[in-house]
Give the backbone structure.
Amino acid sequence: MKDSSVQIMGDNEYEVSTLIQSLGLSKISSKAIACLSNMQEMSSKDLEIAANIRQPEVSSAMRILRDNDWLAEREEKKRSGKGRPVKYYKLTVSMDEIITTLEAIKHEEYENMLKDIVRLRKILNAK
């Protein structure tokens, strides 16, 4: 990631994001994973900046990561003023585990497609 107060995605993170997206995750979830994979923990605001996504997109991406049990989330009250607590996120699994999960999903999809092709051939050859 490039140097700044908030590290924004660099070429490597964009490539990782693109490859994850090609395995079936949304662009926003893929960007979030790519950013979180290089950090111990990120606030929602930092993730917005780093991945160049809007706050509602952060919430949507975090829901997908949470549904896959890949994410830990905590809230911290703001030091001053009113408003909602700041949310912090971190991956709870390694990138290898995420890749393995996506690989298994794609493998199952492939196997199901092959079964459909075999079934289709049987139906057409029965005529």
Q: What stands out?
A: Residues 11-93 form a domain with the Arc Repressor Mutant, subunit A fold (CATH 1.10.10.10). The beta strands are 42-43, 71-76, 86-91. The mean pLDDT is 91. The CA atoms of residues 2 and 8 lie 6 Å apart.
